[in-house]
Each structure stands twice: as C-alpha cells, then as structure tokens.
Write a structure and sequence with these properties.
The chain has 17 helices and six strands. It has one domain. The protein is mainly α.
C-alpha cells in the first residue's frame, strides 16, 4: 500500500495505525438517518448548532393560525396505478395536437402571452436547517434537529398557481393539475438546494476538525456572507445562494424533461421560459438566476464555495472542479430528494385542496409526476416531429438535385 516505505519501516512502532482507523472501523455503517443523527450530535457537542423555536404541529408559522401539517410520503405502486386509472388518458384530438405542437416549437413566444406576477419560492415554502436544534418534547423530530426539512405552504401555492391557471386558459399544455405540479416541483427543488448548501457547510465543518478545532462554517456563512457583505466584499448577485437555488430548480426541470419530445417536454419548456421571463421581477439574488442556468451553474457554485470558506485564495479551476464533482451538486446532499422530510402545511382546507390537485406530492416534486396518461399526445407529437423532419429532408434533397 505504501511502496515508499521499507518492510522494516512498516514494522516499526512509529508506523502503527492511528486509533482513528479503529474508531471508524468500529462505527456501524448504519442507514443515512442513523449516521445523520450521529453527525447532528457531533455538531451539537461542538457548539456548531443554534437553538431556535420548534415548529409546532398545529402552527408552523404565526401567519397560519390553526394550521395543519401533513408529512409527504411515498405512494405505493398500487396507489399510483389507481390515481392514473382515475385520471385516465388525454385524447390526441387533431386540433389539440396542433396547438400542443405550436407550443412545443415556440415556448418563448407562448410565454409572452402569460402575465403572472412573480412570487419567489421562499415566499411559498421554507427550509428548516438541521443546524437549528430544539429540545421540545413531542417535536416532529428528536433533538438536536427538531423539525428540520422542507415546508410547502399550501395556501400560497394554491393562490400563486390559481393566478397562473386563470391567466393561461388558452395554453393547451397548462391544465390546473399540470401547473400545480410544475409549481410544486420548482419550489421544492429551490428549497432542496438550501439543503445541499447546508450539507456542504457541514462537510467542511467535520473535515476541519481534522486540522485542529472544527470551524464554524454554516453560521459564519449565513451570518456574515449570505445576506450581508463579508470579508470577500459584496457579491454582484447577492444573495448568490438564492440565484443558484432558482437556477438549480430550472436545471432540475431540464433534467426531468430529457426524454423524447412529448407532452411533458412541452410543458417543461414553456414553464422554463415563463421562469426566465418572471425572474426579473424577483428580489435581489433571486432575479439573477439566468446567469447560472445550465452549464453556468458550476461557476456560481464555485463562487458560493468561496463564500462558505470565506477564502479569496481558492484556485478558480480547482474550485470549479470541486463544486462540480464533490460539493454543491445534488449527489453531495446527505439525503436524496425523496428522503428529505417534507411537509405540506397551511389551513386544513388548503391542504386538502392541494392534495386534490397534487395527489402524490413526493412523486410530483421529485419526478414531476401527474396522474393523467399523455401517451397518446406523446405519440402524436413524435409523429409530427418525424413528419417535419422527413419534409425538411425531402426539401433538401430536391434542392440539391
């Protein structure tokens, strides 16, 4: 293993294994949740957490009196099948296919016809970091990370989605259930990015202990570098994390729609154009998401890494490599999207209405699921695409003859 050491050196007492190897080897691998709990205890023991009011089961925010909180849970396969059977197919009527094809080809032009005032995702939901602890008995999660996770505010999601529904009635791609699915997907993925950032900060905190006392990364960043100027100076897109969170949601939609052209691809492309159109009305930071969509995200993530470390000495290329492959990508999250504790909260009536429009929230905000089967429309769009390609090929052949 160490070819630069002689056999004598390897047998020397000076080269005995450190006790840390045995400690790690003797630690049960456990589930992610078990390891996370141990990590949270470590953070608490090293005074890297902060106490905060617990989220009550009956009122997660004072603005929602007597609110209900419903945990989002994965649906079983037979439950998904029942939802799909109940919703049925969307028929491929010629006039509908023609409208859908035009929306597929010209999403930017169609988006111009929709005028909806913009609410940034953090107005519709919030992320409770696990760095906040509470010891209240009966909390949704045991100390030290009581109540951590993502909270989707049903009342505001319905109000925002309702405005979109009322102002896009002429758009074939946008039915009420599809709009609410897209809104829920966007908002959840925006909040999930905040989880990614917290996990990156925690990783740095744990690793920093190997070089002496652990560094207080998360709160130094949120207190000094998130909303306010730090020793690095004010970022031109401050708060950068919000720009990246918007971009992450946009990019997640792109990933979901990387399938053959069809109904879902059309709806996603149109919604993305709508996002780009409306970002300019967002608050500072949020409005700059367009600077970090697609491949530009890596540069933004590397700049955020400099903020987390409060370092002006990061090598740019190396920082971009790390932000792309190690920290601040989806794989660096401690929990994958379906595993993050997520709650639908709001007035009981709003929560029920939300579930009517989004009957499988977890599948919706992780996979962009909606119950209606659109396979007939997908086939029709593919046929249109093939026919147009054949016509262009024939025209090119005729021109070259």
């Amino acid at each position: 293993m160490y070819p630069y050491l002689s056999d004598g050196q390897r047998r020397s007492p000076d080269y005995q294994a450190s006790p840390v190897f045995h400690k790690i080897a003797d630690t049960p691998s456990g589930r992610v949740a078990d390891l996370h709990k141990e990590c949270l205890i470590w953070l608490l023991d090293h005074e890297l957490t902060r106490e905060a009011p617990a989220i009550q089961n009956d009122s997660p925010q004072e603005a929602v009196p007597k609110a209900s909180v419903r945990p989002s849970q994965r649906k079983k396969a037979d439950e998904i099948k029942r939802l799909e059977d109940k919703a049925g197919h969307r028929d491929a009527i010629d006039e509908d296919v023609k409208r859908l094809w035009q929306e597929h080809k010209n999403p930017k032009e169609v988006a111009k016809t929709i005028d909806v005032e913009r609410l940034n995702p953090d107005t519709l939901a919030f992320y409770r970091p696990f760095h906040y602890h509470s010891t209240r008995p009966g909390a949704l999660f045991p100390a030290p990370a009581s109540d951590w996770g993502i909270y989707l505010w049903a009342d505001k999601l319905l109000a925002y989605g309702g405005r979109m529904i009322s102002r896009s009635r002429n758009i074939y791609s946008f039915t009420p259930d599809v709009i609410m699915a897209l809104v829920a997907f966007e908002v959840f993925n925006h909040e999930f990015f905040h989880h990614i950032v917290e996990c990156a900060a925690t990783s740095l905190e744990v690793v920093s202990a190997g070089f002496g006392s652990p560094k207080r990364i998360f709160f130094d960043y949120t207190d000094k570098g998130y909303w306010h100027p730090s020793d690095l100076g004010v970022h031109p897109h401050d708060p950068l994390e919000e720009a990246l969170a918007n971009a992450y949601a946009y990019n997640s939609l792109s990933f979901i729609s990387r399938i053959k052209a069809g109904y879902k691809t059309t709806a996603v492309k149109l919604y993305q154009e709508l996002l780009k159109k409306r970002w300019r009305y967002d608050p500072p930071g949020y409005r700059h998401a367009k600077s970090y969509i697609d491949g530009a995200y890596v540069s933004g993530a590397a700049q955020l890494l400099a903020m987390l470390t409060h370092s002006a000495d990061l090598d740019p290329s190396s920082a971009m490599l790390i932000s792309r492959q190690v920290l601040l990508n989806g794989n660096s999250a401690f929990y994958m999207k379906p595993e993050v504790p997520t709650f639908i909260f709001g007035t009981p009536e709003a929560v029920e209405k939300f579930y009517e429009l989004v009957p499988a929230p977890m599948e919706t905000y992780t996979q962009l699921f909606w119950p209606t089967n659109t396979s007939k429309l997908d086939d029709a769009i593919q046929a249109r695409k093939a026919a147009e390609a054949a016509a262009k090929k024939a025209l090119a052949a005729k021109a070259s003859a």
